[in-house]
Fold:
Amino acid sequence: MYDLITVKDLKQQLQILKAYKKERVDLGKAVVKNNLLPDLIALCHPESGVSHQACWILEQSFLLYEKDCYPYIKEIATLFTLSINSSGMRSLTKISSILVKKFYKVSKNKSATTDQLSTYFQRSIREQIVEGCFQEMMDHPDKTANLAWSTLTLYELGKEFEWIYPTLTPLIESILNDDPKGYRSCGSNTLLKIKGVEKVNSR
Structure:
């Protein structure tokens, strides 16, 4: 549907984009095939007027062509420190949850994909994602998907940053006290996993 598009075409399509998966997938494919990832990421910025729609498409581009997005991880991480609305952050936190899980995955035989990710996913970039995910959990405790993706992201990052679990635990407990629908399983399971990690570390 979107075989050949320009930056102008992309913004026009984002302005009329509806929440239909097929349209998102088609546009996500077209962005990568037309080398428009830098332009799409720029459109994710709040001042673009199509920020959350651009984030939706960035999610699809990432899911479809993950390795093509690796060279732009730094620019993607910068988005976590901006005032992007909850709809856009839902897509960004889903991307981060995939990235960090893959990054910290223990593997005896490192693949080319893992090495490539390590090259681009620098510590300062991970720190930006930490900041954004904590902020999202505090700002939108009523957005179940955002909470879940942010929690899963921070759990993985807590394997590296020792201060995360002591900060994340009371935050999850506070959110669970309000009995948020759809988040109880994720929040409770994460607390159990954190306790397990802390128990092992204390031996």
